[in-house]
Here is the input.
Amino acid sequence: MNHFLDIHTTSGADLHAIIDQAKVMKQARQGRPKGMADDEQPLAGQMVALIFEKPSTRTRISFDVGVRQMGGQSMVLSGKDMQLGHGETIADTARVMSRYVDLIMIRTFDEAVLHEMAEYASVPVINGLTDRTHPCQIMADIQTYEEHRGSIKGKKVVWAGDGNNVCASFLHAAAKFGFDLTFTGPSQLDPEDEFVGLARQAGSKVVIERDAVKAVEGADLVVADTWVSMHDSQSSKERRHNMLRPYQVNEELMSHAKPDALFMHCLPAHREEEVTSAVMDGPQSVIFDEAENRLHAQKAVMRWCLGV
Ligand code: CP
Ligand code: NVA
Here is the structure.
């Protein structure tokens, strides 16, 4: 049984195999109506629980559709309507759910909840985002990069803005996929030392550069994310915006990257805040391919978890 808890806790061979399978499964669906089942039905007879303690559009819909395309059944559960951590321990919820379902995906706040769920569940558990990481997003992003530009090994990725949960998973991926990452943002919002250290230990070059223009020089990929994540307090919004404004990804900033650099954003995006519409809708942007690939990458993750 394989849990998919983080990029760095999954072997490089398995990560590559998952992405390769995602590409094959995507190819097999070309031109098909979205509601049509896949030819292969590896999840036939399987029940998947999707638990959300935070809002979601992409994760929720792509997991749900992915399960159905592979012949399984899914239930979308709101954390606040469950006894999760309120009426009973996470461990007991995990034990109970394991008697009903074959796979659990959870989006939560504290990653301790994810880890407790995985420790006590007797079925695989997938991380659908925590305050600290978002591994499913990065699997889709690596697939997207490879589809457009080939291998990401040795490439320069620039993260502009808040060193948040998505940035952390990019640092995990730097270690596993062998790319370099330059972070550009205010020092108060640097990624955690643990994530930077892991990438450096694995041989990736990780640079912290306060000057956004210098940071993007030679970039193969520029990535942005919201300035206020779901776990950040709304009262910090104005302070964060003031700190992060110099790191907006706009056409001027993109002009300092390589001419064929790609732009990514996990979405939802705040147009004219962390990124301008000109970049989001411009020729270097692959944001909607990333969103689509959530579906394909997660289908492959689920198959890996279940060994089917
Ligand atoms: N990128 C992402 O995870 O989007 P949702 O929050 O809409 O699921
Ligand atoms: N950093 C964002 C990502 C949303 C998909 C958040 O955690 O809100």
User: Anything to note?
Assistant: The chain has a mean pLDDT of 97. Strands lie at 47-52, 73-78, 103-107, 125-127, 156-160, 180-184, 206-208, 221-224, 262-265. The longest helix spans residues 287-306.
